[in-house]
Amino acid sequence: MNLIINGKRRRLDVPPMARLLDVLRESCGLTGTKEGCGEGECGACTVLVDGVAVDSCLVPVAQVEGCRIVTIEGAAAAKKNATALQNAFVEHGGAQCGICTPGMIMSACTLKAGCSRDEIKTALAGNLCRCTGYISIFQSVEAGLPPSPRLRRTGKSRLCKTKKGSRARRR
Ligand code: FES
Ligand code: FES
């Protein structure tokens, strides 16, 4: 299997039906991607596949051959908001036990500047947390995303869109 993982081409000798989650964790040593439920319910295993947030526990690696995969380890290099989001999760208490946090951040990486609270909730709808009660997570994402360019110029808010299909895995 040939994949581009965190910007590097990888040729992996793995079964085509192996879960992307297992390939990342066990064959690539990228253990930042977590397994929660293992059946597409919790979002702990979220990674980006060609820019779209997907549950890697549901994806046979054969389905993503040739795709660009970004995990939490490569997020800072691939997505300009990732470092600010990671810091905001620490500063605003969005991370407690941390199991859900990589998935939360990967989903949040699909958001654009100036998103509303409702848009953040929609983007994170497939990510479950057993610790924080969500408010601190939403606050972390709000703090980690830059304000919209228009807001910076005029003080007015502007809605934004998540990447098309970013929550497709839930539907
Ligand atoms: S481990 Fe993949 S959605 Fe829960
Ligand atoms: S911080 Fe523990 S599950 Fe979210």
| Strands ordered across the widest β-sheet | 2-1-5-3-4
Give a quick account of the main beta sheet: strands, pairing sense, barrel closure: 5 strands, mixed
Number of domains: 2
Ligand kinds: FE2/S2 (inorganic) cluster
Tell me the radius of gyration: 16 Å
Based on secondary structure, the structural category is alpha+beta
Number of strands: 5
Order of helices and strands: EEHEEEHHHHHH
Describe the structure.
Helix 3 (82-91) crosses helix 6. Residues 155-171 have low confidence and may be disordered. The chain has 171 residues and is α+β, with helices and mostly antiparallel strands. The longest helix has 10 residues, at 82-91. Strands 2-1-5-3-4 form a 5-stranded mixed β-sheet, with helices on one face. It is globular, with a radius of gyration of 16 Å. Helix content is 31%, strand content 11%. It has 2 domains: 2-75, Ubiquitin-like (UB roll) (Roll); 76-170, DNA polymerase, domain 1, CATH 1.10.150. The protein has helices at residues 20-27, 75-78, 82-91, 101-108, 117-123, 135-144, 149-154, and strands at 2-5, 8-11, 46-49, 52-55, 68-70. 40% of the residues are buried. It is built from 7 helices and 5 strands, in the order E-E-H-E-E-E-H-H-H-H-H-H. Bound molecules: FE2/S2 (inorganic) cluster (FES) (2 copies). One FE2/S2 (inorganic) cluster binds next to loops.
Question: Strands, helices and their partners?
Answer:
Blueprint: E1 2-5, E2 8-11, H1 20-27, E3 46-49, E4 52-55, E5 68-70, H2 75-78, H3 82-91, H4 101-108, H5 117-123, H6 135-144, H7 149-154
Parallel strand pairs: 1-5
Antiparallel strand pairs: 1-2, 3-4, 3-5
Bound molecules: FE2/S2 (inorganic) cluster (2 copies).
One FE2/S2 (inorganic) cluster binds near residues 37, 40, 42, 45 and 57.
